[in-house]
């Protein structure tokens, strides 16, 4: 019964894949030569150290050792700060894109058609220019406004982005070959779907990071925890198959991973919510020209007293608990990571089976490629971004002030008068006597005259 086990959120069964490769006469199908199976690139030192173990336990140890190495690396980049995290996200994005495009290229290349790989990377450049150009304009607003070239690029950013895309679109049309129209349009769609999956969602990951590192670390950690615990529960207790796309997925692993991940999310959130480094929004400091994570934590990260439901009171004997409000949100995040996140892995498993491959690549021994590790993360990133926009984020006074300062003085004066009238109507500001001119109005008037004359 213990033979059935988990293999993470993106496993496929090698034996079944090899069977699917075979024709009725036992030969290898044409597609298998186009998209070969991943090879075992386990370091020789590990192969020698684990040579006496069965393949099942050897795989367990290889995955475990490499998992610890990746978690250690994750801790290091967190320590290095938000800028390094953003750079790592970009590197992961490019590698994931490369792995997916390479699968298509291996098929496409057999027809000797031009420009597929070149155009794929060109569209990746265009997509990143568009998305991250928007982010740079928003995050480094003051810096952009100070520098004339940056201000011009910011003002015409979308037009430039569209022009770049049109150039790639025209190159694609010019590359069409009469006998292979259908295949070329198929690969054109392949590239754009890959951009949607990889670039868009990596962009959302960075947006989540700007809300505070806790919104980056907790969701990613929950997915990692669920992956590990589902594998562990499935490895030792798995008996009941979960889904045909991943034959080694079991209900025991799925359920065990869920409860372990929810508990892990609550505990991790409790630890992180007490540190400004993790909870403060990541903002660009115009004085130091660097990112800062320093603020007065909001109520979301301050301990509150909660009354437990009567059922829980009777079970654990406590009437109230003190916890951070963010811990309640962490339950939603960990629940999604456990119940819905794995469907990103199932989707990837279906994709790999469609092309008869075991893994996207063989970058990480025992784990496959980078995309094999991040298929669940991308789905999680979208959920977190939507969750923040729906339940967390409110108006940002800092960004609003930046936009106001970019207006002409006469426009600023108009906004000032409108805001003043609104506050006086709400009786939040005492009404000024008729004919009285405030110092602020005089200053704005002088600025308007100066701006007009200059």
UniProtKB/TrEMBL annotation:
Enzyme class label: transferase
GO MF annotations in UniProt: phosphatidate cytidylyltransferase activity
GO cellular component terms listed in the entry, alphabetical order: endoplasmic reticulum membrane
Entry keywords, A to Z: Lipid biosynthesis, Lipid metabolism, Membrane, Nucleotidyltransferase, Phospholipid biosynthesis, Phospholipid metabolism, Transferase, Transmembrane, Transmembrane helix
Region (Disordered): 1-40
Membrane-related topology note: Multi-pass membrane protein
Membrane-spanning ranges: 60-80, 86-108, 115-132, 159-177, 184-206, 212-233, 254-278, 328-348
GO biological process, one term: CDP-diacylglycerol biosynthetic process
Highest taxon in the source lineage: Eukaryota
Pathway named in the protein's UniProt entry: Lipid metabolism; Phospholipid metabolism; CDP-diacylglycerol biosynthesis; CDP-diacylglycerol from sn-glycerol 3-phosphate: step 3/3
Annotated catalysed reactions: 1,2-di-(9Z-octadecenoyl)-sn-glycero-3-phosphate + CTP + H(+) = 1,2-di-(9Z-octadecenoyl)-sn-glycero-3-cytidine-5'-diphosphate + diphosphate; 1-hexadecanoyl-2-(5Z,8Z,11Z,14Z-eicosatetraenoyl)-sn-glycero-3-phosphate + CTP + H(+) = 1-hexadecanoyl-2-(5Z,8Z,11Z,14Z-eicosatetraenoyl)-sn-glycero-3-cytidine-5'-diphosphate + diphosphate; 1,2-di-(5Z,8Z,11Z,14Z)-eicosatetraenoyl-sn-glycero-3-phosphate + CTP + H(+) = 1,2-di-(5Z,8Z,11Z,14Z-eicosatetraenoyl)-sn-glycero-3-cytidine-5'-diphosphate + diphosphate; 1,2-di-(9Z,12Z-octadecadienoyl)-sn-glycero-3-phosphate + CTP + H(+) = 1,2-di-(9Z,12Z-octadecadienoyl)-sn-glycero-3-cytidine-5'-diphosphate + diphosphate
InterPro entries in UniProt: PC_trans (IPR000374), PC_Trfase_euk (IPR016720)
Cellular localization per UniProt: Membrane
Ranges of Polar residues composition bias in the record: 29-40
EC number(s) reported in the record: 2.7.7.41
Signal peptide: none
Similarity comment: family membership: Belongs to the CDS family.
Function as written in the Swiss-Prot or TrEMBL entry: Catalyzes the conversion of phosphatidic acid (PA) to CDP-diacylglycerol (CDP-DAG), an essential intermediate in the synthesis of phosphatidylglycerol, cardiolipin and phosphatidylinositol.
Name assigned to this protein: Phosphatidate cytidylyltransferase
Species of the source: Callorhinchus milii (Ghost shark)
């Amino acid at each position: 019964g213990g033979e059935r086990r988990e293999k993470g959120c993106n496993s496929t069964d090698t034996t079944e894949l090899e069977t699917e490769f075979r024709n009725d006469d036992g030969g290898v199908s044409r597609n298998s030569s186009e998209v070969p199976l991943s090879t075992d690139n386990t370091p020789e030192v590990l192969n020698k150290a684990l040579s006496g173990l069965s393949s099942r336990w050897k795989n367990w140890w290889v995955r475990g050792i490499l998992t610890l190495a990746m978690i250690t690396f994750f801790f290091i980049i967190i320590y290095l700060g938000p800028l390094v995290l953003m750079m790592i996200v970009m590197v992961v994005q490019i590698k994931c894109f490369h792995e997916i495009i390479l699968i298509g290229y291996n098929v496409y290349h057999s027809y000797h058609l031009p420009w597929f790989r070149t155009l794929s990377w060109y569209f990746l450049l265009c997509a990143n220019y568009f998305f991250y150009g928007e982010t740079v304009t928003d995050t480094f607003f003051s810096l952009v406004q100070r520098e004339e070239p940056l201000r011009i690029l910011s003002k015409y950013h979308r037009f430039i982005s569209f022009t770049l895309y049109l150039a790639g679109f025209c190159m694609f049309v010019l590359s069409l070959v009469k006998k292979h129209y259908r295949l070329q349009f198929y690969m054109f769609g392949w590239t754009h779907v890959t951009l949607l999956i990889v670039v868009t969602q990596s962009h959302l990951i960075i947006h989540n990071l700007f809300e505070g590192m806790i919104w980056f670390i907790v969701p990613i950690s929950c997915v990692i925890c669920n992956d590990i615990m589902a594998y562990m529960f499935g490895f030792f207790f798995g008996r009941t198959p979960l889904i045909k796309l991943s034959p080694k997925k079991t209900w025991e692993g799925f359920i065990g991973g869920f409860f372990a991940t929810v508990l892990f999310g609550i505990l991790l959130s409790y630890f992180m919510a007490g540190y400004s480094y993790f909870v403060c929004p990541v903002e660009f400091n115009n004085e130091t020209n660097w990112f800062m994570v320093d603020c007065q934590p909001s109520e979301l990260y301050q301990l509150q007293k909660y009354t437990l439901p009567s059922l829980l009171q009777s079970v654990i004997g406590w009437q109230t608990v003190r916890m951070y409000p963010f811990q309640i949100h962490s339950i939603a995040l960990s629940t999604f990571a456990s119940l819905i996140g794995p469907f990103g892995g199932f989707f990837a498993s279906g994709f790999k089976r469609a092309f008869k491959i075991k893994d996207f690549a063989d970058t990480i021994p025992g784990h496959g490629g980078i995309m094999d590790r991040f298929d669940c993360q991308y789905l999680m990133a979208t959920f977190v971004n939507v969750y923040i926009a729906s339940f967390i984020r409110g108006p940002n006074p800092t960004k609003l002030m930046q936009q106001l300062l970019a207006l002409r003085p006469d426009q600023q004066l108009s906004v000032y008068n409108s805001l003043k009238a609104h506050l006086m109507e709400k009786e939040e500001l005492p009404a000024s006597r008729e004919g009285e001119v405030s110092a602020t109005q005089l200053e704005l008037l002088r600025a308007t005259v100066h701006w007009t004359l200059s």
